[in-house]
Amino acid sequence: MLKLKKISVHYGTAEAVRDISINVEEKDVISVIGANGAGKSTILKAVSGLIPVSSGEIEFDGKRIDGLPVNKIVSLGLVQVPEGRKLFPYMNVMSNIKLGAYLRKDKADIKSDLAKVFELFPRLKERRAQNAGSLSGGEQQMLAIARALMAKPRLLMMDEPSLGLAPIIIDNLSKAIKEINRSGISVLLVEQNAGLVMNVSEKCYVVEVGKVVLEGDMKDLMKNDSVKRAFLG
Amino acid sequence: MTYLLTSLFLTVCLIFLPHFMSGPYYVHVFIITMMNIILTSSLRLISLSGQISLAHGGMMTIGAYTSALLVMRLGLSTWYAMLIAGLFVALVACLTGFPFMRLKGIYFSIVTVFFSEMVVLITQQWESLTGGSGGIYNIPAPGAIVVTGLFNIDFLSKIHFYYFALFLMIASLLILYAIEKSRIGFILKGIKQTDSLAESIGINTIGFKVLAYSTGCFFAGIVGAFYSHYISAMCPDTFGFFYTINILVYMTVGGIEVFAGPILGAFVLTILPEITRVLKEFMPFIFAAVLIAVIFFLPEGLAGLFSRLIAFIKKIIRIKNA
To answer: DSSP class of residue B155?
Structure first.
């Protein structure tokens, strides 16, 4: 479904990622794991079209999408939950969620999706009139995901959703991710938290300083000593 | 509701005000005040998207010259000329907006300052068209509106300009208010809060910023055109850098968060120098002192002072009733 073919990204002259190839199939949960500065977020930003790729190709459903404007990419169904749970802090929860459906015209579907999102995150329904900036960290992450879901993604890209959250909240998060995947949405997860990754995904890419050093099924990777040392301690 | 009643009341007051004024000087002060209110409110529309433009002076200059030259060189009717001037300024803002809006924050502001200065230089140097530093004189007043038997507005007296300015102000404020309360205003506020997120949702942030920019500049163009026909003379540096800075100060002092802020700020800070005319030489200092005081003590601006007062009075009433 989503194919990254040997992409490289530069910030000015500095190389952030080099020759990265990643493959996401329909209904997959794929993870990209790596330390700080490995280039994980850069990969997602490149897919979303927020930064240009300097070489390589990105394909979605067999069509090239690198170079397309962001709004085109979103309307294809590639939606990102940005790092640090970015929200509109001075707008209430409801407005935040509704803005997620900005590009959609199908009013009836938006309504039923809204109901589904509230079913997934009942807490948000309780707080729908509250300003997004006043929510707790976990709730803000839920809201960021809820907003992304309102864009009717076919592939949801999450950038470190576990950042700064308590372990119990991360458990909720992995349940939510599984739930989202069960409803037919593929997930590309970028993480540092190996626990969350092991919990939700089948296939994983390990990135180190801008390059994929390992890839494979979650179970096989867990047997790998260097992975264990790096991410499980 | 209180908002609506207050604005209706103020409008009625402004309609009858000239009858109580003792001379053309006061009428002039109010015309300038209303101009400044339009300028400051339109600047706020641009700032809704998070960008502070300092191009208003330049845009007014373009509007003023366009309208004056259309009338004097091409013999166009003043009414059409003013409208065309506004639209032309909006077009200029649209074309320059796309490259400018790639910059954010202070960098955008700096580029708009340069733009304004560039406009001044061009009008100074292009003598064959603009008359150079000497400026243009004898710009005609707007054509008379005559409804036989009812009224005859010939723009020979300042009162007529007063009502014209009042009409412009009310129309502009209504349009600006409608934009702010519409979906466009909502999206602009979203862009201001988290620019990159708005983009990742699929909002064309540059497009919306340019839309706000050129709409705001449209009003600056109209006001510039109005001014040239009102004063009947125009110099390249009439709306120089300090004029723009003044508008920015009006907006900051009035309060950027609420719609009434710029209106309040422009009103108070246009009237204040007139009342304290004996202190004219110290005016920049007084302005600076007011600005610093507001930034320190009233971060929400004068408009915030009002809402604080209302909250305070309500509190007192509650305590008394308890």
So the answer is: S
User: Are the Cβ atoms of B201 and A87 closer than 8 angstroms?
Assistant: no
Per DSSP, the three-state class of B251 is helix
* Superfamily of domain A2-232 in the CATH hierarchy: P-loop containing nucleotide triphosphate hydrolases (3.40.50.300)
pTM for this entry: 0.83
| Two structure tokens written together for B142 | 């707007």
Contact call for residues A198 and A26 (beta carbons, < 8 A): no
Per-residue confidence at A9, pLDDT binned at 50, 70, 90?
Answer: very high
How crowded is residue B165: how many other Cβ atoms within 10 Å of its Cβ?
Answer: 25
Count Cβ atoms within 10 A of the Cβ of residue A33 and give its class: 0-12 exposed, 13-18 middle, 19 or more buried.
Answer: buried
Q: Given a cut of 90, is residue B225 above it in pLDDT?
A: yes
Using pLDDT thresholds of 50, 70 and 90, give the confidence band for residue A189.
very high
* CB spacing of B196 vs A151 below 8 angstroms: no
- Mutation site, B102, B199, B201, B257, interface A, largest A CB count within 10 A: B201
A-chain residues near B193 (CB < 8 A): 88-91
Give yes or no for B138 touching A (CB within 8 A).
no
Yes or no: say if B53 and B40 are a contact pair by the CB < 8 Å rule.
no
What is the pairing mode between strands B151-153 and A63-64?
unpaired
Task: Give the model's pLDDT for residue B97.
Answer: 94
How many A×B Cβ pairs under 8 Å?
A: 54
pLDDT digits 0-9 by tens, B2-37? 778 888 888 888 888 887 877 888 889 999 999 999
Chain B residue with Cα closest to A83: B197
Q: How far apart are CA B224 and CA B38, in angstroms?
A: 11
Of A69, A90, A100, the CB nearest to B201: A100
Query: Which of A70, A82, A89 comes nearest B202 by C-beta?
Result: A70
The ipTM of this complex is 0.74
